[in-house]
């Protein structure tokens, strides 16, 4: 985890204190269930809750683990120090360490998913706001980096909104994948613990019982989770690349917000670098790097091997923390993006009407010219416009073959409004009935 | 695509003839819609359907493309040769090549997903059948490759069923992701084509209109699709690894089916290699290799760049064909897997009862011994059993401290049935009400 | 393998005929060595060479394999049909299939590496030629996509040359990695074959004996090989991205060559798409996708498992064929790239001298102004130039504080030559003594 | 970076204090060179060295960076606080931040490579020692996890030595890749700084000048570096998997060292889990995850974009720290691996001689029997041995057809020594003349 790309809310989820708190709650709820089943004394279960508001001493737990080489035993020993060794002897009865570890891990992932969802919500809100703001701000559409036909900046934001909205649905599904818990004992047979314990703990912790676990919760769930984060990261890259292109010196259609006092480039006013979106491009690569190891984690030996563990100690905090940071950084960039509509218009007009050539061609064909004749007419005027840096429309209007074919109303082929007439329909498809920001 | 790892059904989806057939249908339906809108003559739309049952001449289309360097134009030219150039001049009106290419690509992916689903269904059916067959076949559960506690082979199959059943849900979601079509023109603004055309074509082809497209359908959808295939492939590896372990010489709990006449190893009867599951392990790597490039395909420049195209020409057929083959190979392996319950039992008994040591420990604790005393009692007998290769149970029953603590009925701690008593409950969770195979 | 991204030379290396030819040579040389050792009759060894110029019947071999399910046995059976079953019975004596398969595979990889090297050579030659051609063609250098300071197009080509030249060294090392052969029997102990056979075959086939093999040649070698191809692919992407940027409508500093008759965009003369470099971007992703599975192939079970095989059937032809194609496509793009020096100059001058602001700042500091005062002077004039779209140099020369500090000769701060004075030195570092193209 | 998988030596390399120390040295040497060129006063250069033994105040630098949003400026400001603002004003003259950042980064990578080399050396030494110790310890060789023919444990260690020795060569090459420095100014043209400064700094810091840089050192170098780490990680996984297999309950040929007092499993003496090698398997995945983002970092925009930076902030410390830890963990595992030669022998004899069937077949053929007759003879005895759990050799020696063919001396076909006779030759190939440990 790279501290400078981390928000405290997400870091807290992966903090040892949080993890031990979750472990405690799992163990305590399990004791309640065991007591209800008559497996352990009710008083023992009640006693465990004495640690409800205790702060766990991380250093102490680490010290114990250094001796026992076992994290859960270290925690339980420390718990005994808090609630009393005698009362604590019934804790963890019939459970295996993974019952605690995996259930807690999934709770952390669910919480992480909730934070990520908030980040996606903020990104979507920003995209929606800017989409409506620039619904009809004309801009040249580009394929292959080359001017094609007009579109609007609002449509650009709207498509990113649609993409990020899909990512919300994906993240929701990914969260569902890992919202399971398992308290099923050493190899998942419930040989030494009643399934009722699992049911109780899961209900209390907001999870579904894993229908069938081994010693662990199956890792295809986590593979899907991290693969989904990889897709979201790629969408962030997609938006970042668009903004970087808009900001490049020759395009200058938009800029990341640059605070007035921001040091460094004020001597070179043209030198405002899209460092935030470049950073997002890199963060996307970093988050994506969790996908392959998560996929490699699926195939474990028999009822479990522990090779997945070190991987998850790395990718789980890293991928969620960096993605969370990236979503908020992206939201900030979108919210404050400085847009230059005049530059967009200047770029749109750069080729003096040539971007309308396809539409002229179509109109001539529809007006009855053969495709070949229409093509020849468009081509000769387009080439002339290109080579002489002349106005394409003027040339066309001076070409008798063209004017003979086109009725006067069609001469408005260069009208931008033509390209924008379906924008509302598209917005309705993307944003639905709620056309308010 | 590696021909030996390909089934003809899936290969056919990626065959040029299939692709051109889909292109034709898209264009013909688009003509119908354009005719209904009055954009093109009804007769022209009707004429296009003359090619309905025609075989397209791939070599001819290739020859035209070699000149025009444009695949869609080559196809349209050839279509004109079939239906007549005059009738064909209204085909593709207002459309851009990507309207055809992307919509067709998604149709191919949907069909591929349908075939993959059939493969998953077959795998699930095989797993379910074997799960019920071996519901109570005892087997040692292993963590870290080391004997832990007893489980059953049926539980192993049941958990793989649950995993593959999850993959069905994932594949269903992945298919939904790519079940969209777009006929929205050069930069997605519908400037030269009415959205009604898209609606009609999508309805006819079983797709939803893409709410907002640029020149292309957004690639986050395909990233999610291929990421899902990567997860499924990893699950295949998971099962393959289990079978490879079961078949290794020292374990020999199961073997891939080996036909009586199968040449080569009959002089070495012990040498039956799990080559199918090893192959599946490799195929899993191959399918997974599509995930990263699919993620890298998301960030395209502006309204599109064509860098995704070459990637998809490779990964789309390769990943779907190899995964389809792998699913059916896996199903065959499971269906015909030769199981050796006696070997399972022999392995289970290998350590003369030591696998029950945890349960004894728990029973002693519950019988009132302190954890320390119970531990000491179990340990001394376990170490003796281990070092002297003696029977653990016999030693325990000869230990006065143990027999003093344990009531006679608890001496049945070594009863396997104890470990199997929740199997039915787990099966009910996995297979639901339908407990028939 | 995608046929349209394949050159016949590389495809031929992976052709079954080539593979069987190599298998034959390995077997025949092995017979010679076995005969020399007296293990098999000299006549038998001589007889095998009867197949020296034979065309192998692939369909026949496939038919035999369909029965025997073993590729090497199928080949040997067919070889027996050519040279006579009696003479053929000594072929393959003491060898295991992998002795042939792995040695042949490495020969194919070496030949592939040789072809790739030729491709790299062509790319390097093209880059060198264009570097010298444009050694002093001024161009704005950009960091973050934003204008920074002047450089030359020749330096751009020169750095790509240096990168591709490094790739030559890497490919040379990668070829060395896989230039080994092994004829060491079932588990690599030479139990049934003398090491002299391996030595003879390797000498004849241009390989080094693998110092220690198991049944197979260790796969860390191949992992390194494919990782190297992944690096080369990334360098291709690097150059491709540069060209795509140069060609985008607002930059237009260079274009992929567009043949005069090339159909499609002549009606839109501004619409010349960098489709070749976009394609190269995608091919880079495709080639890179071989890296991870090659790394996953390293860890095999004990003396071998065959999981690597299906992976290599895919990635070996695919990665080498696509990379080979990509190198030649890239070379063609560079050789014929249409360069627009005037556009470069226009872009360079776009900000009316502001790109020199750093240099002015430095000069003022060196002239004795404090950094703060110098900064303030530069900043006020830069901001004025930016906001009023005025000439930066003119404004500076009208600023008394500046002219007081700067001696007249320093007023030539805007001289481009200043930025180009080390170009020759850099060229000497990159191209060495050989400054001819 | 996961603290529990980190050694302080490697962590120190990535410590801010180390980084600032390197930055300082680069700046101070650059001042010397600038002073020698007469660009800055000799006194200013000398003054900078006042900070030679200073501890940099990280918190202070962070505080400045929080304001300036620029790490190098923050450092320089703090440096000014140490050496005096006046003296410090000549520091960094003509340089761009990346001159410092990239040169320092490469120095860190070189130091990391040196530490990794020490780790590889330790692994190699351990492997060599164990190889010689078990040069002739017989062990069954396995292909596909199935018993094949005898080999020795020494050969297993020897081949891992050879693999790790290759990794030393690769790491050496990878270190060379990144052992370059660049002090070439904003876009790499040396416009504001003489190449002599770069030469001086590089000489002092143990680097070669980068022949041609832009604002940054080209990232194909780093891609190759991290790809190499990925290969080394895969080799670690390869050895880890072998040990995990040896330790599994049914094989038990070796075990990770288990300290006598180690808590937890002493009540289950059979339950000694190979947790270290499982952990290494996971760490291998983690280290490998750096490869793809490093490859994606190669293609930057024009003279640089900063997307690589966040990636490297993650992967550079993470991959080197975890790989370093893994190498030492692996070395420890090998050094202390508990080997059970008797279990190896028992496994070898498990199939009562059937592992020699191939050799018998060969002997019969060489003795003049047709392949078919020999095959039939071997097969019928092998099947009988298999089905009746009888001794293969005894059956063969009782088969008249066999005894008729085989001369008495060939009856020693079951002699293990036959399989070991080339071990010395192989050791000579692997370890060369130095056959001492």
TrEMBL record, chains A, B, C, D:
It holds the Pfam family Lyase_1. GO terms for biological process: 'de novo' AMP biosynthetic process; 'de novo' IMP biosynthetic process. It catalyses: (2S)-2-[5-amino-1-(5-phospho-beta-D-ribosyl)imidazole-4-carboxamido]succinate = 5-amino-1-(5-phospho-beta-D-ribosyl)imidazole-4-carboxamide + fumarate; N(6)-(1,2-dicarboxyethyl)-AMP = fumarate + AMP. Residues 352-431 form the Adenylosuccinate lyase C-terminal domain. It comes from the Bacteria. PROSITE patterns: FUMARATE_LYASES (PS00163). InterPro entries: AdenyloSucc_lyase_C, Fumarase/histidase_N, Fumarate_lyase_CS, Fumarate_lyase_fam, Fumarate_lyase_N, L-Aspartase-like, Pur_lyase. Its EC number is 4.3.2.2. Keywords: Lyase, Purine biosynthesis. GO terms for cellular component: cytosol. It is an enzyme of class 4 (lyase). One of its GO terms (molecular function) is (S)-2-(5-amino-1-(5-phospho-D-ribosyl)imidazole-4-carboxamido) succinate lyase (fumarate-forming) activity. Pathway: Purine metabolism; AMP biosynthesis via de novo pathway; AMP from IMP: step 2/2; Purine metabolism; IMP biosynthesis via de novo pathway; 5-amino-1-(5-phospho-D-ribosyl)imidazole-4-carboxamide from 5-amino-1-(5-phospho-D-ribosyl)imidazole-4-carboxylate: step 2/2. Belongs to the lyase 1 family. Adenylosuccinate lyase subfamily. This is Adenylosuccinate lyase. It comes from Rubellimicrobium thermophilum DSM 16684.
């Amino acid at each position: 985890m790279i501290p400078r790309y981390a928000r405290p809310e997400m870091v807290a989820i992966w903090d040892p204190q949080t993890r031990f708190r979750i472990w405690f709650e799992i163990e305590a709820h399990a004791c309640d269930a065991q007591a209800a089943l008559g497996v352990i004394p009710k008083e023992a279960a009640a006693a465990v809750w004495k640690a409800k508001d205790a702060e766990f001493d991380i250093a102490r737990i680490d010290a114990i683990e250094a001796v026992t080489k076992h994290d859960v035993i270290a925690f339980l020993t420390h718990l005994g120090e808090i609630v009393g060794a005698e009362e604590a002897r019934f804790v963890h009865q019939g459970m295996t360490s993974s019952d605690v570890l995996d259930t807690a891990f999934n709770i952390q992932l669910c919480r992480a998913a909730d934070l990520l969802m908030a980040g996606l919500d903020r990104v979507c809100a920003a995209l929606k706001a800017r989409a409506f703001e620039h619904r009809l701000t004309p801009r040249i559409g580009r394929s292959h980096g080359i001017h094609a036909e007009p579109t609007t900046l609002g449509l650009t934001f709207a498509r990113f909104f649609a993409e990020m909205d899909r990512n919300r649905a994906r993240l929701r599904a990914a969260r569902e994948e890992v919202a399971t818990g398992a308290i099923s004992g050493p190899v998942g047979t419930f040989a030494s613990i009643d399934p009722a314990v699992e049911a109780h703990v899961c209900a209390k912790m907001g999870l579904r019982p894993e229908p069938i676990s081994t010693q662990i919760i199956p890792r295809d769930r986590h593979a899907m989770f991290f693969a989904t984060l990889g897709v979201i990261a790629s969408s962030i890259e997609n938006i970042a690349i668009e903004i970087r292109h808009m900001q490049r010196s020759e395009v200058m259609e938009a800029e990341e917000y640059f605070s007035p006092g921001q040091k460094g480039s004020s001597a070179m006013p043209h030198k405002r670098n899209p460092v935030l979106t470049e950073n997002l491009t890199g963060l996307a690569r970093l988050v994506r790097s969790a996908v392959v190891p998560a996929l490699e984690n699926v195939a474990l030996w028999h009822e479990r091997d522990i090779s997945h563990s070190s991987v998850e100690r790395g990718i789980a905090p890293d991928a969620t923390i960096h993605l969370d940071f990236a979503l908020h950084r992206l939201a900030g960039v979108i919210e404050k993006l400085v847009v230059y509509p005049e530059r967009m218009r200047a770029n749109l007009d750069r080729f003096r009407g040539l971007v309308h050539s396809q539409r002229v061609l179509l109109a001539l064909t529809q007006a009855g010219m053969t495709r070949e004749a229409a093509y020849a007419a468009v081509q000769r005027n387009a080439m002339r416009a290109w080579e002489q840096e002349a106005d394409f429309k003027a040339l066309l209007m001076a070409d008798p073959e063209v004017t003979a074919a086109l009725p006067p109303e069609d001469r408005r082929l260069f009208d931008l409004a033509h390209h924008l007439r379906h924008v509302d329909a598209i917005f309705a498809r993307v944003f639905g009935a709620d056309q308010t920001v």
